[in-house]
Amino acid sequence: CVLFMVDPESQEMQEFLYPEGPPAQGDSATTDEMHRIRQCYQYGADLDDKMLSIILASTAEPEGSINPSLALSLIEHLFECCKTGRKAELRVMDANLVWDMYKLVEYLPKTIPTQAKI
After folding, report:
1. What is the CA radius of gyration of the chain?
2. DSSP string covering 45-92, please?
3. Rounded Cα–Cα distance for residues 22 and 26 (Å)
4. What gap in Å lies between CA 3 and CA 81, rounded to an integer?
5. Torsion of CA 31, 32, 35, 37, to 10 degrees
6. Residue 71 contacts residue 104 (beta carbons within 8 Å)
7. Please, are residues 102 and 66 in contact by the beta-carbon 8 Å criterion?
8. What string of pLDDT tens digits covers the 118 residues of the chain?
9. Can you give the pTM of this predicted structure?
10. What distance in Å separates the CA atoms of residue 72 and residue 31, rounded to the nearest whole number?
11. How far apart, in whole angstroms, are the C-alpha atoms of residue 73 and residue 46?
């Protein structure tokens, strides 16, 4: 998911891709990998029902889930990639996913427990 959100040249992406330090200069495998990552970042991906449902479902999983804020950022970026002039297309057909997105951002105030009367 980070491939669609963060500039491949950023420090954050470099640390993600190469936690043990930068690769050797001229490494063709690294050059090819960076080219593919730049393509993901630049062109995005078609956003369809399956991709959106995977992102939304990942917020509900007890282990290995992503927080709703990150899910929302990813969805926003994927929508942004579907704007006119960009390569990706919006292919979401399932109206129930709209409700799932609403639940993702729905504000639920914390309730204050009432004090017992003495």
Report:
1. 19
2. --EEHHHHHHHHHHTT-SSSPPPHHHHHHHHHHHHHTTSTTSS--EE-
3. 12
4. 13
5. -110
6. yes
7. no
8. 556 667 777 887 777 777 777 776 766 667 777 777 777 777 767 888 998 998 888 888 777 688 888 888 888 888 887 777 777 788 889 999 989 888 888 766 777 666 655 5
9. 0.60
10. 31
11. 16
Task: Write b or e for each residue in 82-98: b if 16 or more Cβ atoms lie within 10 A of its Cβ, otherwise e.
Answer: beeeeebeeebeeeebe
Phi and psi at residue 90, in whole multiples of 5°?
-90, 120
Q: Which residue has the tokens 């009432």?
A: 114
Spatial distance between the Cα atoms of 45 and 89, rounded to a whole number of angstroms: 7
Residue type at 66?
A: I
Nearest to 47 by CA among 109, 4, 13, 111: 4
